[in-house]
Amino acid sequence: KALGMKALPTHIECFDNSNIQGTNPVASCVVFRDGVPSKKDYRKFKIKTVIGANDFASMKEVVNRRYSRMLEEAPDDLPQLVVIDGGEGQLEFARQALAELGLMDKLMVIGLAKRMELVIRVNDPYPLFLDRNSQALKVLMHIRDEAHRFGITFHRSLRSKAQIQSALREIKGVGEQTEKRLLMHYGSVARIAAAPLEDLSKLVSPSLAAEILKALNQS
Q1: CATH number of 11-161
Q2: Class for the domain spanning 170-218
Q3: Which residues of the chain have pLDDT under 70?
Q4: Rounded (5°) CA angle 84-120-61
Q5: How many angstroms separate the CA atoms of 205 and 198, rounded?
Q6: Helix (H/G/I), strand (E/B), else coil: 184
């Protein structure tokens, strides 16, 4: 009712972008059904088409990817409400993606700006102020915060993985091909670090194997 919807939305999805200083830009989509997180439906996105930190273009990309796929695989399971973590800019680019997919008449999309928790609506120059104690705002904030938590967790895991792999490349004698060969064989840097010297020496020289183990177990 607070958003002017004809019926209570039982399926809500929320998008959040996450990047720190433009590194490893990612986005998250969380799904709530009947007011409860549906974690099996959560989705993570690595930004593919946008260079650097561009929240607007990144939002358009992930919204397009999410609903392009849904239209192909589950067209009858579209949400009634899409919440965008952000203000007018993020909302406009999400709207563009939805409009290009022909979905603007099938669902409602709003933005939730962190500053003062304003609800931003499409084609409405005036933000909606909901009472801080209203159930509607509490639900929207809870969903937005869950999207942020999920996105930050994914982003941190990617940053950690990138930092560990860069540590592998910083070892003298380890180039791109050696790194690739080791990761393909062991599956992760952690498994390389735990490998016995004699096993690792089957893939690289014994001296390099010893250097790799020394460097990884010190880092």
Answers
A1: 3.30.420.340
A2: mainly alpha
A3: 19-24, 155-156, 158-167, 219
A4: 30
A5: 10
A6: helix
189, 166 Cβ separation under 8 angstroms: no
Burial grade of 180 (CB within 10 A; 0-12, 13-18, 19 or more): exposed
Helix, coil or strand: residue 30 = strand
Taking the mean position of all CA atoms in its chain, how far away is CA 134? 28
pTM for this one? 0.72
Q: Locate tokens 């260079």: which residue?
A: 51
Stretch(es) of the chain classified as CATH 3.30.420.340: 11-161
Rounded Cα distance, 33 and 102, in Å: 23
Element (DSSP H or E) covering residue 53:
none
CA distances from 195 to 182, 215, 219 (A): 11, 13, 15
Cα 209 from Cα 165, distance rounded (Å) = 16
Q: Treating both helix axes as pointing N-terminal to C-terminal, what angle do 55-73 and 88-100 enclose, rounded to 10 degrees?
A: 30
Distance from C-alpha of 122 to C-alpha of 140, rounded to nearest angstrom: 17
Angstrom distance (rounded) from CA 208 to CA 48: 35
Q: What is the pLDDT of residues 44-61, one digit of tens each?
A: 998 888 877 788 999 999
Per-residue pLDDT of 6-48, as tens digits, reads 899 999 999 998 765 556 688 899 999 999 999 999 999 988 8
**In this structure, are residues 29 and 13 in contact, taking their beta carbons and an 8 Å threshold?**
yes
Where, residue-wise, is CATH 1.10.150 in the chain? 170-218
Q: Cβ distance 61 to 47 under 8 Å?
A: yes
